[in-house]
Amino acid sequence: MDRTNHAYAMRFYSGSCAIDQINTRLGKTFKLLSLPYFLVDCIEEYLGWFVKY
């Protein structure tokens, strides 16, 4: 995340939907969108919503 020019990240996992603010070891702050695996087909809709959040 420290090498990119934006502040958004996402992951798919077995938990529930969440948005967390994370700091890297070098101090960059970014937002992490965590989505359950079953929402992988909805990635475009969630990404559009996430960057406006």
Write a brief structural summary.
The chain has one helix at residues 43-52; strands spanning 8-13, 18-23, 29-36. The protein is of the alpha+beta class and 53 residues long. The mean pLDDT is 96.
Q: Any descriptors?
A:
about 55 residues; alpha+beta; 3-stranded mixed sheet; 1 helix; 3 strands
Q: Largest sheet, described in full?
A: 3 strands, mixed
How many domains make up the 3D coordinates? 1
Distance between the termini: 19 Å
Number of strands: 3
Report the total helices.
1
What would the average pLDDT be, to the nearest integer?
96
Spatial arrangement of strands, main beta sheet: 1-3-2
Strand-pairing-aware structural class = alpha+beta
Could you state the order of secondary-structure elements as H and E?
EEEH
- Give the overall form: globular
Helical content (DSSP H or I, runs of 4+) = 10-25%
Low-pLDDT stretches: none
Q: Rg from C-alpha positions? A: 12 Å
Beta percentage is: 35-45%
What does this 3D model show about the protein?
The radius of gyration is 12 Å and the shape is globular. A three-stranded mixed β-sheet has the order 1-3-2, with no helix packed on it. The chain has one domain. The protein is built from one helix and three strands, in the order βββα. It has 53 residues and is of the alpha+beta class.
Topology:
Layout: E1 8-13, E2 18-23, E3 29-36, H1 43-52
Parallel strand pairs: 1-3
Antiparallel strand pairs: 2-3
